Structures are given as structure tokens and as C-alpha cells.
């Protein structure tokens, strides 16, 4: 199973990891509600006539069905709704999602309840008794109880989704597991990318319109980052800082491929940007590898941050793109650990001095790369 998972594309692996918690959340709440209902009644004898009389097979079916519904909700959220509602206000998101999930939950009830009844009665789904029970259930307090429970599961999973989207799934998991509660030293790859001519573009568009451009710009860059296993560390104005653990950054040259996929995605949307904003954004980037200390920090607001000279050095490397008139600069330390294919043309720029640094750094630019 692990080998099959590792064969998937980075974006597929990330989506699976983001979706799985939805199924787990729904299953946990289902078991909590089951235990709560059972404790309140003392046994199954107090179950209303319109509800399902539970046995082991129905309990297993119910747990399985709830988990599948949770995974379905997660898939819809991660793959479709999050992107669909990117530009919507919070109020619009609430209204649209309420309508969407109301229909979804009604469909879940109409599908799973008859199946459970047929299992309870040991009869066919076509038996008239099954549909009489469904009719009675739809006008009973048992339906209200079911709706409340399903809604609670939905709200909990959507709350997880919103928190994960705002602080980053990887960051949320690290907070929950306490991975960086005690600072740790590790080696990471960083890419600092900066929009070209951002000051001129901001003055040309005005703050409001420029913000809309930035939102679209970040959205279009996200595919390249996610499909190459990158982790967004920070958005700083028009600058995006992407990070990789060494293994995933070097694998399949993800850290280099990320730059070119981001470029290709922006180029593909260039005409749309010109029509919407009168300008097509572009960017330059610097890549470097080095040691950092990673840990939780903050009093009123907790964050997981990286500290180390590599961050300043990578920023300085990116800052030399204009001087050398290139869009990508890669340090010699990083390039020496990559296994680039024949589709790459590398040009050495020699030992370069970084602003504020006494030690020179060997820099290279990659002129072209065939992205599969």
C-alpha cells in the first residue's frame, strides 16, 4: 500500500492526505453519537419505532457509510468547492455550502436508510415495508435527530477544512501532533519567488484591483507548488516563500520543476490577466538549501517558523536575478545534489557576493527545462 501511495503524483498524495481526516472526523462523531444514544436509552429497546433496530451488521454498515460520506464531503471540499468559492465572501460561502450540503445530506438519508431497513427486516429493497418505514421516518423525530447528528459531523469537518485552508494542512497536522513544540534542526530547500515590476503594477491598478490580481496570481501558482510537493511557508506581499524537506524537494527535481510549472501556468493565463487587469504578471526566483531550526513560536498567535542563515541567503540570491537578467538562480550547494536530465541547460555565473554576506556563493541559472 505504501509503495502504491508513493507512486502517485505529489498533488494526488497531498489531496489524499487532506481528504482522509474528513472520513476520520465523521467516523469519530458517529461513534460518539452511537455511545451517547445507547447510554441515554440504556439498551436498544428504547429505540423509536421509526428508527433502525441496531445489530452488529447494521452498525458496521452505518459506520462504513458514514466514513464514505465523510470522504465524499472531503473530496468535494478539497477538489471542487474550495477552488469554486475562492473569490466568494464568507457569507456567500455559508449560503452556497448550506444549500449544497442540505441536498447532499438528504440524498444520503434517502439512500442509506432504506438499505439499513432492508438489512434489519432481512428483505429486499423493493419490499413495500421498506418504503413505508422510510415514509414514517421522514415525518418523525428520528429524522430530526439524524439531521442534527449529520449536521454536527458536517460542521466539524468544514471547520477543520477552513482552519486547514487558512494555516495550511501540513502546519495544522504539525500543531496537532506537537512535532515542533520542541525546536528541531533540519535541512530544507527554500524558494523565494517575487513578482516582477510589482510596484509599477500596484500603482497602475490601485490597491483594490491589485489585491484581486494578487489573489488570482497566488491561486494560479498553487498548482505548480502542490504538484511538486512544495509547502507554502509565507506570503509576503507579492512574494511567495516555498519550502521542501530535502528528500521530497530533491525527488524528481521537484524544487526545480516547481518553478517551471509555475511559469507555464502563468503563461497559459497571460491573456486572461491582460483582459482582466491590463497586465500579465511574471516572477523571478532564487533556490538554496541549508540547515534551519524549526519550531513553534508566539504568545498571542502561534506559528511554526524557520530560522537560519539560509533564509536570508535565499532572499539575497533571488535579489540578484535582476542584476544577472535571469528569472531563476540556483545555488551551487543545491545544484550539486540534484540529478538533472538532458532537458536542462545550466549556465554557471561563478562565485557571487551576496549583500550583507562575507562568504561568496556559487550561482547558476537554468535557461530551459522540459517539464513532463
Shape: elongated
**Order of helices and strands, N to C?**
HHHHHHHEHHEEHHHEEHHEHEE
Q: Figure out the total of helices.
A: 15
Biggest sheet, in brief?
8 strands, mixed
Write down the Rg.
Answer: 26 Å
- Termini separation: 25 Å
Strand content: 15-25%
Unreliable spans are none
Average pLDDT confidence is 84
Instruction: Count every beta strand, where a strand is a DSSP E run of 2 or more residues.
Output: 8
| Helicity level | 55-70%
Which class of secondary structure composition applies to the elements?
Answer: alpha+beta
Description:
There is one protein chain. This protein is an alpha+beta fold. Helices cover 59% and strands 17% of the residues. It is built from 15 helices and 8 strands. Strands 1, 2, 3, 4, 5, 6, 7 and 8 form an 8-stranded mixed beta sheet that branches. A hairpin with a 5-residue loop joins β4 and β5. α6 crosses α7, α8 packs across α9 and α9 packs across α11. The longest helix has 32 residues. The two termini are 25 Å apart. The mean pLDDT is 84.
What can be said about this structure in brief?
Helices cover 59% and strands 17% of the residues. It contains 15 helices and 8 strands. Helix 2 (10-41) packs across helix 3 (56-84), helix 4 (90-121) packs antiparallel against helix 5 and helix 8 packs across helix 9.
Amino acid at each position: 500500500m505504501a509503495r502504491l501511495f508513493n507512486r502517485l503524483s505529489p498533488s494526488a498524495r497531498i489531496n489524499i492526505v487532506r481528504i482522509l481526516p474528513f472520513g476520520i472526523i465523521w467516523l469519530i462523531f458517529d461513534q460518539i453519537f452511537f455511545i451517547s444514544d445507547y447510554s441515554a436509552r440504556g439498551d436498544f429497546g428504547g429505540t423509536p419505532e421509526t428508527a433502525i433496530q441496531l445489530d452488529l451488521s447494521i452498525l458496521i454498515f452505518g459506520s462504513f457509510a458514514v466514513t464514505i460520506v465523510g470522504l465524499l464531503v472531503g473530496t468535494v471540499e478539497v477538489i471542487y468547492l474550495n477552488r469554486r468559492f475562492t473569490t466568494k465572501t464568507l457569507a456567500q460561502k455559508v449560503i452556497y455550502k448550506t444549500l449544497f450540503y442540505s441536498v447532499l445530506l438528504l440524498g444520503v438519508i434517502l439512500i442509506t436508510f432504506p438499505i439499513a431497513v432492508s438489512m434489519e427486516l432481512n428483505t429486499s429493497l423493493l419490499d413495500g415495508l421498506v418504503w413505508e418505514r422510510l415514509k414514517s421516518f421522514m415525518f418523525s423525530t428520528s429524522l430530526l435527530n439524524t439531521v442534527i447528528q449529520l449536521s454536527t459531523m458536517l460542521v466539524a469537518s468544514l471547520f477543520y477544512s477552513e482552519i486547514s485552508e487558512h494555516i495550511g494542512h501540513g502546519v495544522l497536522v504539525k500543531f496537532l501532533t506537537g512535532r515542533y513544540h520542541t525546536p528541531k534542526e533540519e535541512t530544507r530547500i527554500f524558494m523565494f519567488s517575487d513578482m516582477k515590476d510589482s510596484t509599477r503594477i500596484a500603482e497602475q491598478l490601485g490597491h483594490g484591483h491589485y489585491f484581486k490580481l494578487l489573489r488570482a496570481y497566488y491561486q494560479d501558482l498553487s498548482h505548480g507548488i502542490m504538484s511538486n510537493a512544495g509547502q507554502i511557508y509565507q506570503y509576503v506581499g507579492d512574494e511567495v516563500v516555498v519550502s521542501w524537506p530535502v528528500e521530497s524537494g530533491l525527488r524528481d527535481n521537484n524544487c526545480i520543476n516547481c518553478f517551471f510549472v509555475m511559469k507555464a501556468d502563468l503563461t497559459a493565463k497571460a491573456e486572461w490577466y491582460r483582459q482582466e487587469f491590463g497586465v500579465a504578471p511574471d516572477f523571478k526566483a532564487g533556490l538554496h538549501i541549508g540547515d534551519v531550526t524549526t519550531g513553534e513560536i508566539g504568545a498571542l498567535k502561534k506559528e511554526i517558523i524557520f530560522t537560519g542563515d539560509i533564509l536570508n541567503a535565499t532572499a539575497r540570491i533571488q535579489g540578484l536575478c535582476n542584476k544577472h537578467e535571469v528569472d531563476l538562480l540556483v545555488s551551487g550547494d543545491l545544484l550539486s545534489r540534484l540529478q538533472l536530465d538532458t532537458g536542462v541547460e545550466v549556465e554557471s555565473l561563478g562565485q557571487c557576493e551576496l549583500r550583507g554576506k562575507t562568504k561568496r556563493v556559487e550561482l547558476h541559472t537554468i535557461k530551459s527545462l522540459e517539464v513532463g
